[in-house]
């Protein structure tokens, strides 16, 4: 496919720091290659801004290949943009039309405060993970190799699928309630399905859910938006599994 | 939310089966059923559970909605929510509020009249014979007892003044004026109240339309709510999900539709008896 160049209008959320009030700013960007990724397009915008001696737009990114979960962005009203099962770094400019206006906003959630421009503080996820997302391992010199424990294929697969969550926060961003249940559901499920995770199963789900509530995330009402916007295709089944684990732990 | 929601779904089925008896167009059959529903102790216990469920469900729903609004203090300038979720799932609070308003007004129109209104009519029948002109009698709960309407006064004072044989006490009791002894209990004529409500010359059509709209709202609430409740309870399994969803959609269409049929039937098709 031949490379095409398009001209686009950008409406970008600009906010000096956590305390300032932000607003949408409009930029015109010409000669954007349809082969470039969305983040490369933002790099191009920043070069233009630096040349104009303006403050570049701050946005999160790291691996740029869909595995780290650093990139974010609410693009044209959807987390990680219009395509499904991809992160923003995997979104290509060929998805957009010449002359199109593209809205770019940060994740919006009480638990994800904006640090600057499009960068939000997702450390709430870290604290949820720290509250219970771990397993005990014998380190006294006779550690058992994990592969020595047989696990049935079905559970291993479901656990692996849950472990695919990269902690990007698109689920929270797209949920009308700002709920983190898909993320927490994936983290709880990943361990709950494996024998190694059984030891802390009871305390884990209670602690992680408590931390989730303390961070100010909303409550799940099963709209299903998260599952559709999740770049890793994490299933709602994980939320149901967490609900089961939670009920089980609450009554025992 | 899920437990009360599903309990209310069961309630809807029960209530619907009761209401559908209107289609028999037999006042006495319906009033007998209404009497059973207001006097049987097991049904009474069930009805208190229903009141509590509605209150808890509405309160919990309001709290849930409030907390979820607070979880996103700054909204999006551009949000394409319809790309990832159904409109009914995003408006459960509003749909629920409309249903709550409906339930309150609905209970004022029928439940409160049945339980407290002193003007609640008692069921009468007209007996025709070849010898005499038609005469109205009150039906009573004692088999074989009929009380002539022209012999019944509204209260004791009126009975004494007019020398009528009976007066009505505690809304349903026919009392002998002289001896102050109860003769029998009448039947509250809920059928008549219901028909009069939806056939009201001034507002009957408005009531009918509002009722149908409310059932539409209930349908949307259940369209999301039914399957949602299973997910909330952790009941999600690839083997059964499709069946739960399909049943939920069927339920959300059939139940409100059948409820809505009744006022339409009464207003447009039922011949006044
Ligand atoms: C007969 C009446 C009703 C029935 C059968 C019913 C049924 C349900 C069901 C099954 C759910 C799903 C529960 C879950 O996902 O865990 C639900 C949710 C909900 N209901 Fe009701 N409901 C009724 C009346 C009401 C009323 C009166 C309100 C009043 C405010 C209300 C407000 C809500 C709210 C806010 C939710 C929210 C959960 C969500 O967004 O998914 N409902 N209802
Ligand atoms: S569940 Fe999906 S959307 Fe949510 S944090 Fe994990 S990868 Fe991102
Ligand atoms: S930058 Fe790592 S997933 Fe997008």
TrEMBL record, chain A:
<dbReference type="InterPro" id="IPR025192">
    <property type="entry name" value="Succ_DH/fum_Rdtase_N"/>
</dbReference>
<feature type="domain" description="4Fe-4S ferredoxin-type">
    <location>
        <begin position="156"/>
        <end position="186"/>
    </location>
</feature>
<dbReference type="InterPro" id="IPR017896">
    <property type="entry name" value="4Fe4S_Fe-S-bd"/>
</dbReference>
<dbReference type="InterPro" id="IPR036010">
    <property type="entry name" value="2Fe-2S_ferredoxin-like_sf"/>
</dbReference>
<dbReference type="Pfam" id="PF13085">
    <property type="entry name" value="Fer2_3"/>
</dbReference>
<dbReference type="GO" id="GO:0009055">
    <property type="term" value="F:electron transfer activity"/>
</dbReference>
<dbReference type="GO" id="GO:0022904">
    <property type="term" value="P:respiratory electron transport chain"/>
</dbReference>
<comment type="similarity">
    <text>Belongs to the succinate dehydrogenase/fumarate reductase iron-sulfur protein family.</text>
</comment>
<dbReference type="InterPro" id="IPR012675">
    <property type="entry name" value="Beta-grasp_dom_sf"/>
</dbReference>
<dbReference type="GO" id="GO:0051537">
    <property type="term" value="F:2 iron, 2 sulfur cluster binding"/>
</dbReference>
<dbReference type="InterPro" id="IPR006058">
    <property type="entry name" value="2Fe2S_fd_BS"/>
</dbReference>
<protein>
    <submittedName>
        <fullName>Succinate dehydrogenase/fumarate reductase iron-sulfur subunit</fullName>
    </submittedName>
</protein>
<dbReference type="InterPro" id="IPR009051">
    <property type="entry name" value="Helical_ferredxn"/>
</dbReference>
<dbReference type="Pfam" id="PF13183">
    <property type="entry name" value="Fer4_8"/>
</dbReference>
<dbReference type="InterPro" id="IPR050573">
    <property type="entry name" value="SDH/FRD_Iron-Sulfur"/>
</dbReference>
<dbReference type="GO" id="GO:0009060">
    <property type="term" value="P:aerobic respiration"/>
</dbReference>
